[in-house]
User: Fold these one by one.
Assistant:
Number 1:
Amino acid sequence: MARPTLDGLGEELLVNLMTKVSLTCRQGDALFDAGRFDAAEAKYFQEAFEIVGSGLALPTTAGDPTGGVICDLYVGLNLWKRANLMGCCVGIAKCLRRKNDIEMALAWCDEVNVLYRCGFHQLPQPIYDWIDWTPDIPELTLLKSTALCVASEILAELGNSGTATTRRWNAHKTTKNLPMHHQTTLLHGVLNRALRNKMLELRHPDPHAPLGTGPLVPGLQVRGSWARLNVAKMGGVTDGREAFACFIWNSHLYVAGGRTSSTGPFHRDMWKLNLNAPEQWHRLPGYPVTLGASGRFIGWTMLVRESNSTVLLFTGRPTIDVFDLTSETWSSAPLHTTYTPTAADVEAGITDGWPWPGKVSCDATVMFSASQNTVYVFGGSHARSIMGCDLFMALDLATLRWRRLSGSVRAPRVANNGCPSPRKNAGGWASPDGARVYLLFGHFDREAASVYNELHGAGEAFGHEDFWSWGVKEEKWRRERIAGNPPCARTELAYVYNEKLQRAIVFGGYHPTLPTYVLNTTTGRDTQFNYSYFGDTFLYDVAPSPSPDHATPTSRAPKWAQVLTAGFPTYRCQAQFAVDSTTGKTYMFGGWTNNQYIPTHTQMMSRSFGDVWELRVDLPGGNFEGVDVEEEGRVARAGPWQRCWACAAAGPWKKCGGTCKGRVFFCGTACFREGWAEHKRAHKCRKA
Ligand SMILES: [Zn+2]
Ligand SMILES: [Zn+2]
Ligand SMILES: [Zn+2]
């Protein structure tokens, strides 16, 4: 709506007046505050449908063609109607939370986020997600923040500390630079600085969080277990790898290339480990192409083609290298792919006849759809962009021809709302039926921009918070809702689609701008990291089968669930998942972490991991049968920390010195005295 130009005071008066007239949701708030919760809920619903009409189901649910983030009806709402509808959504979320309908309460909080996001589509020119556009209506600011903080409280109760903390941090970030008339007592009560600072001390998962062994919230939580494989002999990749390629074939885990640390050594080798008898890594022929011809073997992806027992290596060159898994040799007949740019492709910056400048691509999201016989490549960096691009290409393996589906060679000056913005190290997978290709999070390296004279530079990287899917038939992107109990924004995450579980799985990664505070109880000095590393695990279910006692509209919709595990691998980025298609088991290997982020005695700034883990989840086919949940709760390591056998607290505890050879740990003499008798009995330990 057009607002007359007035001086500051006049404008404020007008805003106050409009607030009173337009925000009928406040009638619901009055009922809520009077304790008349059913009447409040009814009022919120009535006012909400007054705005959207009867044609729209509220809350709109994820997944179906109308269930994306962008809703034409919402884009068409003026700011006051938008604020009023947000008020109704927040009110309904609060009412449902009181009734313990957690999933629906979260869906209504997300509806506020969607309403806010749709506002961006009213701007005369699309803007990138890293620009936070806030209309000058304090009520709208308050409602947006309230929805984030209500969701944060619910997620914290669910034990999803990463997403809970990110939501509360985002509420702070989106409001901190707004003018004084937004900074109301009410807003600051919602933002709750003390709670925010407390939450920023958490790790995700937090080793001190109580181990929920009680009943889970169906649909939002799944029990799981991380088990480390005991590779007896050192050597090969056991000294740690980052930015490597990784896959599983015939129950063997393969790792190729990458580096030991950011300063090297840089590898071009290949190794395999028998997952059924993981005694040692075996060396295979290294990558035969010269460094001069291919560049470093960093941030590349290898894709298994079960149909002919080969694996493909995409490097950004027209030649796709092929490794024959049966003969264990690099094929002398690699795939020679071709590409002919269209006029639109040239317009998109493909000027030298090949999509990736310098014929290199790294940190792209490379996905294989077996049912479409197609390789999809999104984003990544190349010779003319180190920040990450939004180029989306498809290679038809039948014709060996590339085609550009969306995006440009370099990040355009003006954003495009219709496709994911530029990024690298995103997660992604093709749905098994070949109908959709998913893209999750990743980051745009704005810090690196100035070095290479690229657009959109800034002092810090931007961590994408979005989730997209590409409709293969309609050739269109849809920005997806992130429903359920989801992971927070992150990049360099481990991801895979497990066909046996029918779930995508996500683990770890890092958030480039979510701070972590570390209180040192010995020195009394605090350290603040401007980033966070994660060790949490999530599943994405695209077609949940709703339980009969849960008839809400969200129960059938695609959604995320957190996997709750007593132990977990140390917080890290660049780890990789792979699924053994023979057994359906999910394995994770490698990655790295900043050493200051975890307790350590070394002087090195970072360390990479060479460990192999199996993730077991309590779902059909999840290999959970052998897991002793109670025992795990007392012995499983919480990231870098041991767990005390007696009290289950996590910390740098001492091993039991008995004949058990350190099967359990104790946090101190009190717990040792208390737990010794039981440990003796349970593990047949004797004083050594
Ligand atoms: Zn990293
Ligand atoms: Zn203890
Ligand atoms: Zn012992």
Number 2:
Amino acid sequence: MKIKAIVNSIAGICAGVFMSSCLIAEENSVTSRIENPPVDLIVYGDYVLTMENLDSANNGIIEKGAIAVSGGKIVAVGPASEIEISYDAIKTISGDGRILMPGLINGHTHSAMTLLRGFADDLPLMEWLQTYIFPMEGRFVDKEFVEIGMRLACLEMIKGGTTTFADMYFYPKTAVDTVDECGMRAIIGAPMIDFPSPGFGGWDDSMKAGVQFVQDMKAKAHPRITPAFAPHAPYTVSPEHLAEVLKAAKDEGVPILMHVAESPTEVEDIKNRYGKRPVTHVADIGMLDHPMAAAHVVHPDEDEIKMLAGSKIGAVHNPTSNMKLASGVAPVPAMIEAGVKVGLGTDGAASNNDLNMWEEMRMAALLHKVTSGDPTAMPAGDVLRMATSLGAAALDMEDDIGTLAVGKRADMIQLTVDRPHLTPLYNVISHLVYAANAADVVTNIIEGKVLMEDGKVTILDEASVIEAANKKASEIKAALAER
Ligand SMILES: [Zn+2]
């Protein structure tokens, strides 16, 4: 930075923000090299969608913008012309023909279930769970299964632009090690269920293991991984046990992940057992006042929507899974209108059958239009918020992720728009919801670390991840054939 002409334009920035670093001797002259603050990374975008000020005239989009990143956090957001003269970056990533935006947040999945992708389709939820999924998991799910399946899931999510996910599955310690290796951000829930399951013999075991897991993780204070308690659902965990989980979650200060009000069968079951609907049941246990990401929430009634709106519970919408298992249509427009924090998730790959948040966004945008008969229902901006800023709030993580703003964690992605199906570009928000695909994502950055660049994943060896998954699947196939 030795050019006199730029001094005036940066002087204001230096004066306001980092005077100590700017060696400007006197007005309009440079006596020595101006040392800008060093940053790890500057990422550019022809369109920088911050997801802040989405209601403003330009949707909060900075054309020809850039983001500076240091120590895993965003330190500056603004026009590229200002950012590049204000910081010296170790690395830069071009934004030519690209949209830069917050990474997508998959609010509900069971990532290791990628290994059961396409294993049993076209069945009702309870039959699918009880005849296929639970017995298969009992037989095949071990630490190796979780490691291989989760690595595959992380590869798929990194390539598709997801940066954070909330996971409920078995062997949470193995899950933590795998997420740590894959570089993603995640909430990992310790699984808890009333009957024997992979890794534990019953409730007491799972409760004890869950508390131990959460305490160990808190001691580690991992920058990307948040521990949680993950009781399966109100129909598989008794109210006494849910109260026990709630107390432990409060004591430890960690969130809860749970399926809630997913299917009509669950609603009937809970009504028969406890004389009330699932959300009311959960509320009566006292769970409204503690952060919880409730997956599905397909069947809250009007009063229950009001309860959720005033609560610390986020509702994670899983439209593909709900359609595939014919669980019903969640009243998402009404929940958003009421002020419920609504996120978006894929559910596991056995009920989706992929972890593609772009597809999930499009399903969310379309499903509610056709079922309400209202083409203005679920506009693209609302859907995009569910996958980013509102999705972060649903996970109680809005202080850290979900928008591109100074002080937030540097979780962001770039998509190339230089493609036939994205040409011409009138409206970035519309394109992202109605036309973009996972394959358009070319860059994935989490906690300031570049995990994929120019479409190539750098954190994992793609071929070996796929090979290991195929090998595991052939073992499962062989065992099934023997049966
Ligand atoms: Zn689920």
